[in-house]
Design goal:
Elements (H helix, E strand, L loop, with lengths): L5 E6 L4 H6 L2 H7 L3 E8 L19 H19 L3 E7 L21 H15 L3 E4 L9 H15 L6 E6 L2 H24 L29 E4 L4 H10 L1 H4 L3 H13 L2 E8 L17
Parallel strand pairs: 1-2, 1-4, 2-3, 4-5
Antiparallel strand pairs: 5-7, 6-7
Helix pairs in contact: 3-7, 4-5, 7-9
């Protein structure tokens, strides 16, 4: 009997599964791979359905979490996720927010405690390939950093070694994104000026010490470039399912046609591999098929 291939993505919040694995999940499902999504937090500090930001008086974290769960389940249907597991931790908010210190928050949860819970799921599913974020959480969010830490700790608790990937964007592609974001920022500034308002300044992501870091990954360090172009519509629709968080994102502003032409690949860095493979591959399960 052929061993069931299983992919596990460990994400921090509802909507992360769509942004960084929204093509990979349905692609693998179409190939007969079982897909398991672990979402670590409930996303309490996202935008409220009415658009209220977390610092707004009418922002109710519990209402936000309930709404985001509905959006997440819809996204999972679109992406054909076979199993969704919610670890149930409270969103910690951005680095430096008061929510970081909430004992219920994911950031304040002892790594060993959360890792043991995740290891239990891994032992149930026995994934050959696991994906999460790098040690900077890709962009410095504490919940993404914590997802990295508990995933590494959970893998050390297993009696076997899966292949581990981090999601990534090559520096060459990040340069293109930055050019687009700069153009959008100029447009927002002009629109704000026309309204007699001051445009919002966006700061670069920083680490725990407040030092800026590069979100992009040197192209030569990319271990897998997965062609997900056949599933661009699923990825677009999964992002759109998270309407409360994504409606004004650059993804949605592209429109479906431009999204199809732009979001054709998902990239990963290979971190652990029991097969000792090196170099670039186009299949996360290349050594398991």
């Amino acid at each position: 009997m052929t061993e069931q291939l299983t992919f596990m993505a460990v994400h921090a919040h509802p909507d992360d599964e769509a942004s960084s694995t929204g093509g990979t999940l349905p692609l693998l499902h179409s190939q007969g791979v079982r897909t398991v999504l672990v979402t670590c937090t409930n996303g309490e500090f996202g935008d409220a359905p009415e658009g209220h930001k977390p610092d707004h008086d009418d922002h109710d974290p519990d209402v936000v979490a309930a709404h985001r769960l509905v959006e997440l389940k819809r996204s999972c249907e679109i992406l054909h996720v076979d199993r969704l597991v919610m670890l149930g931790y409270r969103d910690s908010g951005m680095m430096g927010w008061p929510g970081n210190d909430d004992p219920r928050s994911f950031w304040s949860t002892p790594i060993e405690e959360a890792a043991a819970k995740l290891a239990g799921i891994m032992n149930e599913e026995r994934p050959q390939v696991v994906m999460t974020y790098n040690e900077f959480g890709f962009y410095g969010h504490p919940d993404h950093i914590q997802a990295n830490r508990i995933t590494l700790a959970a893998l050390d608790m297993l009696d076997y070694e899966p292949t581990l990937y981090y999601n990534a964007i090559p520096l060459s592609v990040m340069a293109q994104y930055r050019a687009r974001w700069a153009h959008e920022a100029e447009e927002r500034a002009r629109e704000a000026l026309a309204r007699g308002e001051q445009s919002e300044e966006r700061t670069a992501p920083t680490d725990e010490e407040g030092e800026p870091f590069e979100m992009g990954t040197p192209d030569e360090l990319i271990g897998a470039a997965v062609d997900t172009s056949a599933f661009s519509d699923e990825k677009f629709d999964a992002l759109a399912a998270h309407h409360s968080q994504i409606a004004d994102s650059f993804w949605m502003k592209m429109g479906r046609e431009q999204f199809r032409n732009t979001m054709r690949t998902e990239w990963f860095v290979r971190v652990r591999d029991p097969h000792g493979r090196t170099g670039l591959v186009d299949d996360l399960f290349v050594d398991y098929r």
